[in-house]
Design brief:
With about 140 residues, the protein is α+β, with helices and mostly antiparallel strands. The protein has six helices and four strands; from the N terminus they run αββααααββα. It has a two-stranded antiparallel sheet with strand order 1-2. The protein has a two-stranded antiparallel ribbon with strand order 3-4.
């Protein structure tokens, strides 16, 4: 296994993003349409947060007892903004970081995606799935 392989080799380059003006319903549609679990929130080309599908699940089922699930989700989504739900404290890596460095960060933290940022610009995202697929290719 090549320990110094740069994360740019395994990261997703065409990143689906959101901005603060988007709503949580839009986010849910993007998660489902693209079958992804993490969406960076950007202001221009700068990343300002990360929204995970788990973040949406945490709020959408909070009061879903004996209610029509879709109407409850819409009602709950209207109560929050992306800025209120997204993770704001992020760790990012440059595209030159090694796959090993990224694996160490992900194994030490409780999140499953890291934005890849070069010169303040979001250039990709690397997830635990990307790492697993990379490892599988090594065998």
């Amino acid at each position: 296994m090549k320990k110094q392989t740069p994360v740019s080799v395994i990261m997703t380059r065409n990143v689906i993003t959101l901005n603060n003006a988007d709503n949580l319903e839009t986010a849910e549609l993007l998660f489902k349409k693209h079958r992804i679990r993490h969406i960076p929130v950007v202001s221009g080309e700068k990343i300002i947060g990360m929204l995970s599908y788990t973040d949406l699940l945490r709020i959408s089922f909070a009061d879903a007892v004996d209610e029509d699930e879709e109407s409850v989700e819409t009602m709950v989504y209207n109560m929050f903004t992306i800025g209120q739900v997204m993770a704001k404290t992020l760790i990012s890596v440059p595209s030159t970081a090694s796959v090993q460095e990224v694996a160490e960060i992900l194994s030490d933290r409780e999140f499953h995606a890291i934005p890849v940022v070069d010169d303040g610009k979001l250039v990709g995202i690397v997830t635990t799935t990307d790492l697993i697929n990379y490892l599988l290719e090594q065998f």
